[in-house]
From TrEMBL:
<keyword id="KW-0119">Carbohydrate metabolism</keyword>
<dbReference type="InterPro" id="IPR013785">
    <property type="entry name" value="Aldolase_TIM"/>
</dbReference>
<protein>
    <recommendedName>
        <fullName>2-dehydro-3-deoxy-phosphogluconate aldolase</fullName>
        <ecNumber>4.1.2.14</ecNumber>
    </recommendedName>
</protein>
<dbReference type="GO" id="GO:0008675">
    <property type="term" value="F:2-dehydro-3-deoxy-phosphogluconate aldolase activity"/>
</dbReference>
<comment type="subunit">
    <text>Homotrimer.</text>
</comment>
<dbReference type="InterPro" id="IPR031338">
    <property type="entry name" value="KDPG/KHG_AS_2"/>
</dbReference>
<dbReference type="InterPro" id="IPR000887">
    <property type="entry name" value="Aldlse_KDPG_KHG"/>
</dbReference>
<comment type="similarity">
    <text>Belongs to the KHG/KDPG aldolase family.</text>
</comment>
<dbReference type="InterPro" id="IPR031337">
    <property type="entry name" value="KDPG/KHG_AS_1"/>
</dbReference>
<keyword id="KW-0704">Schiff base</keyword>
<dbReference type="Pfam" id="PF01081">
    <property type="entry name" value="Aldolase"/>
</dbReference>
<keyword id="KW-0456">Lyase</keyword>
<comment type="pathway">
    <text>Carbohydrate acid metabolism; 2-dehydro-3-deoxy-D-gluconate degradation; D-glyceraldehyde 3-phosphate and pyruvate from 2-dehydro-3-deoxy-D-gluconate: step 2/2.</text>
</comment>
């Protein structure tokens, strides 16, 4: 069985999605899978997150589904129950990391400086999210961190078609996350064709 790191390395791009209505979940998963991007990080920024993960998992058992913006242990429980493969948090919260480790679910916490990388390493983590990537120094900062630490990074925050290749060119970067390829307005309009075009272009 492939590890999370291997699966992210293969997929390369993680769509970070805020779903406003659970009815969007399956059509969205459908568009992602059918257009070659069988992955989603569904953020707990909306009430619809837990149920959306459950619906996507039911419809596409093989899809790689993460729960994003996880800030509490209750949200970790909900994400696991719904069928999430991994948990993502914007910052490095040792309580959340420990809880995920106890529950046996992969966690990719956000870091944006050397001290946080070291704290993550001390807790046994080998992959972290670099967030918010662009405001935190972007590719130059990542190069500096990568020169020192044997960890892999998943940058997100300010990544777009114009800079994504620069990040992916770094050996330490396994995948990039972002919201640009799944705009909420297209989902709210149910414009799945335009979404499909965006994802195919990507
Ligand atoms: C995240 O949670 O990873 C970010 O909100 C993604 O940032 P972006 O909207 O700049 O892509």
């Amino acid at each position: 069985m492939m590890t999370l790191e291997q699966r992210l390395t293969e997929i390369k791009i993680v769509p970070v999605i805020a779903i406003n209505d659970t009815q969007q979940a399956v059509p969205l998963a459908n568009v992602l899978v059918e257009n070659g991007l069988p992955c989603a990080e569904v953020t707990f920024r909306t009430e619809a997150a837990e149920e959306s993960i459950r619906l996507m998992r039911e419809a596409y058992p093989e899809m790689l589904i993460g729960a994003g913006t996880v800030l509490t242990t209750e949200q970790v429980d909900k994400a696991i129950k719904a069928g999430a493969d991994f948990i993502v948090s914007p910052g490095f919260n040792p309580t959340i990391v420990k809880y995920c480790q106890q529950r046996g679910v992969a966690i990719v916490p956000g870091i944006n400086n050397p001290s946080l990388v070291e704290q993550a390493m001390e807790m046994g983590l080998k992959t972290v999210k670099f967030f918010p990537a662009e405001p935190s120094g972007g590719v130059a900062m990542l190069k500096s961190l990568s020169a020192v630490y044997p960890v892999k990074f998943m940058p997100t925050g300010g990544i777009h078609p114009g800079n994504v290749q620069d990040y992916l060119a770094l050996k330490s970067v396994i995948a990039c996350g972002g919201t640009w390829m799944v705009p909420s307005d297209l989902m709210d309009k149910g414009d799945w064709d335009s979404l499909a075009t965006l994802i195919r272009e990507l």
